[in-house]
Design a protein that fits this description.
It is a single chain. By secondary structure, the chain is an alpha+beta fold. It is built from 23 helices and 32 strands. The protein has a domain of 120 residues: Aminohydrolase, alpha-helical knob region (Penicillin amidase (Acylase) alpha subunit, N-terminal domain). β16 and β17 form a beta hairpin. The radius of gyration is 27 Å and the shape is globular. Keywords: Hydrolase, Signal, Zymogen.
């Protein structure tokens, strides 16, 4: 097998001719240099097929990283460079201290906060310390080679090509990078749901002074469980990350082999986009899928034997420790009565058109001092106490090794083996299927080792409210016996080992839509895990309920193929509509005089809406009439009516998929929500029965492209969260939603049967021919047939081959 693949590799290299070319964004180098590459340094062969998808062929991991870095730069150099400015702590220098930082690598609101944090990480040499650890705690030699090669490939592209993307053409902040920069990006991605969420409070925390410090002022009264749950949802119910995925066992499929549908929901713009490729080292690695920008390994994908995807978990990836302070010094805390001084991290940031800014951050054995969970849940630093954040992913560089292990796996058991060895996934579940017919779900993620028993012994008063309501633990940091401890199978102290992870093997279906592990399969509920992983027996979101209804029916029907996965992706069914639209239409028709009073006190004629909602087909297809009206109504209804009053039949843990149900149209907020939605559409000049495609679209190359799908709160599988602007005609842009799709199965051949789609296309450069081509396919609900095997790659009518290399 190895010799055969090497012959294919040599054949592919021989295909390179003078007619070969890079994509338009990278097609400016002299032809002669490409025909006679240097014989020393790193190099790779890149075969581009339809839609600019690169198939990267290399002899080892360093060369593979080189080809990947080169090809990512060709498509996304501006988004990548912007991220490296963030990681260097130089946003204020180039873009101004008060400008918004964006959400690609942290939740910092301003460039100054972002810079103070990331420059602090760099100056503390956090990344170097993790790189120095032996595998599996630190990265393996293969991953180090990938990172080193990626940096070299990115730099070679900058040196040899001209930037055509107007977002950064000629910008002084586009600079070469190092392996350290690539590793720092991986660390930032891992901790984006931990320390990354708290950048503003980490960089703003200050010790109390004067009377506040000497008085030993106590903290504010304990917030309610409802306020805590809301704060947790705002922090970790991130609208910028989500997903659906389902794996079907061979017992449900037409040929006894597994099937996987992956549907991650991610930003359509910026540095958190996915990027497609195939990576091949003959005889060692052959995998296709999507990578997060700036990372050298495939994040979600498939090979000849197994396919996997990820969904964001309900696990809480960080916890807090309440520090008991020395009465004489609020920067000294006590552990078992012994004083420990906080570590000062003093950071200076250069500022555009201004003087440098210097700030001090305060760090403890547990992590940085923070002063709030949210505006409603303060964690004040007083003369008596302070709070420190513990994020085990702040030193986790194991994501890439875990993903590389998936890429080389030959079964779902191999996927689990990689998770068990590397323990590197920070905030995602894994769903997988293989050609032998196995299915897998596991919430194998890096979580602080917060057990219910530990919380019972060591929780503070505030923690006793927080933990049951949200899974957020606040432990007594003054007691050594409240340390997180170590599981014997954990690679590092303070996290759960593989034996504690909620896992479901070989169920007819394994599905997750960002709900808890409990309802991965309605007939085989998972229980017995710690609260920090998520809840058991609590109300499901509409997207989870709708997904389980759909995939359970598919599994019961049996005989499934990849085509069934494709149909599920674009069914665009609205579970909220199925549950409520009929009730809304009937209650609407019963309103006296066909009028309802809006939230502004004005009477609105809603009689036309009654018939529109009754006739609506309960989908978010582009041609659906009534979809837009229901969408705008439902958003307002959820704001106007408390969740515990929305339904007449309450939730029952004995029937979690079908309850709650029966819309409470008697709720006081119902008529106003309907009136406001009708008034909103009329004010925008939009007919109540207008087809969705006229008002939910993106603009590419000056043309409107209708966008199918709808909001996750409606329960739609194909999540699309566009921006509403009635004055501009409706929904004007899609900042977030369905991103890298893959529907994967196997037949009797050596090649997987795979259909993929990158909804926002491969490049964000408007001058690239691949900035909108797959978006047009998404608009028409069409897919790309994956070219995985050599014969399929080499037979592509769009094949372009290039040998990329370092120049000495």
């Amino acid at each position: 097998m190895r010799s055969r693949l090497r012959r294919l590799a040599l054949g592919a290299t021989a295909l390179f001719t003078a007619a070969s070319a890079l994509p338009a964004a990278a097609a400016t180098a002299p032809e002669r240099a490409e025909q006679h590459p240097s014989r020393d340094g790193l190099s790779a062969v890149i075969r581009y097929t339809e839609h600019g998808i690169p198939h990267i062929l290399a002899k080892d991991h360093a060369d593979l990283g080189f080809g990947t870095g080169w090809a990512q730069a060709a498509d996304e150099v501006c988004a990548l460079a912007d991220g490296f400015v963030t990681l260097r702590g130089e946003r204020s220098r180039y873009f101004g201290a008060d400008a918004p930082a964006g959400g690609d690598l942290s939740a910092a609101r301003t460039n100054l906060a972002s810079d103070l944090y990331f420059r602090g990480v760099r100056e503390s040499r956090t990344v170097e310390k993790v790189l120095a650890e032996r595998a599996p705690v630190g990265p393996s030699r293969e991953v180090r080679d990938l990172m080193r090669g990626w940096a070299a490939g990115y730099n070679a592209w900058l040196k040899q090509r001209k930037i055509t993307d107007p977002a950064c053409a000629g910008a002084s902040w586009v600079r070469p990078v190092t392996e350290l920069d690539v590793a720092a990006r991986g660390l930032a991605i891992a901790s984006i749901s931990g320390e990354g969420r708290f950048v503003d409070t980490i960089t703003a925390a200050r010790p109390p002074t004067g009377k506040v410090a000497s008085s030993g002022a106590s903290s504010a009264r304990t917030p309610s469980a409802k306020a805590v749950a809301k704060a947790a949802d705002e922090l970790w119910g991130d609208p910028g990350m989500g997903s659906n995925a389902v794996a079907f066992h061979g017992d449900t499929t037409a040929n006894g082999r597994g099937l996987l549908l992956g549907n991650p929901h991610y930003p359509w713009e910026g540095g958190r986009r996915f990027w497609q490729s195939q990576q091949t080292i003959p005889g060692e690695l052959n995998v296709s899928g999507g990578s997060l920008l700036g990372t050298p390994a495939i994040s979600i994908g498939f090979n000849a034997h197994v396919a996997w995807s990820h969904t964001v978990t309900t696990g809480i990836p960080a916890n807090f420790h309440r520090l008991t302070l020395d009465p004489a010094d609020p920067t000294t805390y006590l552990v078992d009565g012994r004083p420990e001084r906080m570590k000062k991290r003093t950071v200076t940031v250069a500022v555009k058109d201004g003087a440098p800014v210097t700030r001090t951050q305060w760090w403890t054995r547990y992590g940085p001092v923070v002063t709030s969970l949210s505006a409603q849940v303060p964690l004040p630093w007083t003369g008596e106490a302070a709070y420190a954040l513990n994020d085990p992913n702040a030193a986790n560089l194991r994501f890439a090794d875990t993903s590389l292990g998936f890429s080389k796996a030959r079964s779902t058991a191999g996927v689990l083996a990689s998770l068990d060895r590397h323990q590197g996934l920070p905030w995602v579940n894994t769903i997988a299927a293989d050609r032998a017919g196995h299915s897998l779900y596991t919430q194998s993620q890096v979580l602080p080792r917060i057990t219910d028993e530990l919380v019972g012994r060591c929780s503070t008063e505030l923690g006793r409210t927080m933990y049951p309501a949200s899974g957020i633990a606040i432990l007594d940091g003054s007691r050594g016996d409240c340390a997180l401890g170590r599981d014997p199978d954990a690679v590092v102290p303070g996290i759960f080992g593989p034996g504690r992870m909620p896992t479901l093997k070989d169920a007819p279906y394994a599905e997750n839509s960002n709900g808890t592990a409990w309802m991965t399969n309605a007939d085989r509920p998972l229980t017995g895990y710690e609260r920090v992983f998520g809840t058991v027996g609590t109300q499901l979101g509409l997207r989870t309920r709708g997904a389980i209804e759909d995939v359970a029916a598919m599994a019961d029907r049996g005989g499934l193929t990849v085509r069934d996965l494709q149909r599920q992706q674009f069914a665009n069914r609205v579970p909220a509509g199925d549950l409520a639209a009929g009730d809304v239409a009937r209650a609407c028709a019963a309103l006296p005089g066909g009028t309802a009073t809006g939230s502004d006190g004005e009477a609105v004629d809603v009689s036309e809406a009654c018939g529109v909602l009754k006739a609506w087909d309960r989908t978010m297809d582009t041609g659906s009439r009534g979809a837009l009206l229901f969408d705008r109504f439902w958003r307002r209804l959820e704001q106007a009516v408390p969740s515990d009053r929305l339904w007449k039949v309450p939730f029952s843990a004995a029937d979690p998929v079908r309850t709650p149900n029966t819309l409470n149209t008697d709720a006081p907020g119902f008529p106003a929500a309907l009136a406001d939605a009708v008034a909103e559409l009329r004010a925008a000049g939009i007919a109540l029965d207008a087809p969705l495609d006229a008002h939910q679209f993106v603009v590419r190359d000056g043309k409107r492209l209708p966008v199918p799908g709808g909001g996750g709160r409606l329960g739609v599988w194909n999540v699309i969260e566009p921006t509403w602007d009635g004055a501009a005609g409706g929904y004007t842009e899609v900042p977030f939603g369905t991103s890298h799709l893959q529907a994967v199965g196997w037949d009797g051949s050596r090649c997987p049967v795979a259909r993929t789609l990158l909804t926002y296309s491969q490049s964000s450069n408007p001058n690239s021919p691949h900035s909108a081509d797959q978006t047009r396919l998404f608009s028409g609900e069409k897919w790309v047939t994956s070219r995985f095997c050599e014969k399929d790659i080499l037979s592509s009518p769009k094949l372009k081959v290039v040998r990329v290399h370092e120049r000495r």
